[in-house]
Design brief:
Elements (H helix, E strand, L loop, with lengths): L1 H29 L8 H7 L5 H21 L9 H24 L4 H16 L2 H19 L5 H8 L9 E3 L6 E7 L4 H10 L5 E7 L12 E2 L5 H10 L4 E2 L1 E6 L2 E6 L1 H11 L19 E6 L5 E2 L18
Parallel strand pairs: 2-3, 7-8
Antiparallel strand pairs: 1-3, 1-4, 2-6, 5-9, 6-7
Length: about 325
């Protein structure tokens, strides 16, 4: 029975390794991993190493498990190499599953497939391994469950401010307002707003991206020495905002959040373009509110966790030529 079990585990390990090898080939050829949902891209953005190396580690793991089941001696011992590798796999998966459930609240379908394979391999190894594996996995889940990972607690712990998430800023003489612009590199609506901001001349703009590796084609920018894109995600999460672009307006008596390409462009067209003497404009579109307010137009937006495509023409500010 043990021999048949080991052969099944070997074949499943080879199959899992082949799937990961195919994923590595896809990453090398297309530059991104294959996934059945958008959760993979979310998880990848929050890792400190590229997904290619994570998949290489997974490939080495399953090849080591294959070799241990094929050549290891005393496979039924408590400290047998296959048993230790299977337990290690459950611990690692326990951390990854807990992180996705308790912290980012988004699941990666590819990660769940690998997790299911590791669970199946532990089941195949026998009842003792199932019991020990469940104990380890449950301990990891319980450890995450008793910790507070709310966005507010993370900000307090890190003593962060909005400036900590600023990638670059543009100042002007006697700015009328101080604004923070939350955006993404692959959001077409954000790009349309950025084009309008090139000609802004009477507001101090802070650019707070929710992803890394930004490049901004705007003259007169001053760049921060460091910034945290994850902090910007936390800020939006605290306010239950799931779309971009978002503009935060710092008023003397509170904050205003403006969502959507069209609403943001209308606001900055009124507030951030100094007019020549003798010209007149319409009444302001947004009054100075007290406290915290959210203007939600539900138009010209991209979901933070989903790739966005632009179906509309670019909107130009009436003050740009």
């Amino acid at each position: 029975m043990s021999g048949k079990r080991d052969k099944i585990i070997q074949w499943i390990s080879l199959l899992a390794g082949a799937c990961i090898a195919l994923q590595i080939a896809i990453i090398l050829s297309k530059g991104e991993a294959f996934c059945l949902n958008d959760g993979c891209s979310v998880v990848e953005k929050l890792t400190t190493i590229p997904p290619l190396y994570i998949n290489l580690a997974g490939l080495l793991y399953f090849m080591a498990l294959f070799g241990a089941c094929r050549w290891s001696m005393q496979k039924d011992s408590f400290f047998a190499t296959p048993r230790l590798l299977l337990s290690l796999g459950l611990v690692v998966e326990g951390v990854l599953v807990s992180y996705q459930f308790f912290i980012i609240q988004t699941f990666c379908s590819y990660c769940l497939i690998i997790f299911s394979i590791i669970v199946l391999l532990n089941i195949l190894y026998g009842w003792k391994q199932i019991g020990f594996g469940l104990l380890l996995f449950g301990a990891v889940i319980a450890s995450f469950a008793v910790l507070n990972f709310s966005p507010a607690s993370l900000l307090v712990l890190k003593n962060e401010t909005l400036a900590s998430g600023t990638y670059a800023f543009k100042k002007c003489t006697a700015p009328a307002k101080k604004l923070y612009f939350f955006f993404s590199a692959d959001c077409p609506h954000c790009k349309n707003v950025l084009k309008v901001l090139k000609n802004c001349n009477s507001c101090e703009f802070h650019f707070n991206p929710i992803d890394k590796n930004q490049t901004l084609d705007i003259a007169g920018l001053e760049y921060s020495k460091s910034y945290s894109s994850s902090l910007n995600r936390i800020v939006l999460s605290m306010l239950d905002i799931t779309t971009i672009p978002v503009l935060l307006v710092q008023n003397t008596d509170g904050l205003t959040f403006i969502k959507g390409e069209e609403s943001i462009i209308r606001f900055i067209s009124q507030a951030c373009f100094r007019q020549e003497q003798g010209t007149s404009t319409d009444a302001p579109l947004f009054e100075e509110p007290a406290g915290m307010n959210l203007f939600d137009a539900q138009e010209g937006e991209c979901a933070i966790e989903v790739e966005c495509t632009d179906e509309n023409e670019e909107i130009q500010s009436p003050f740009t030529r």
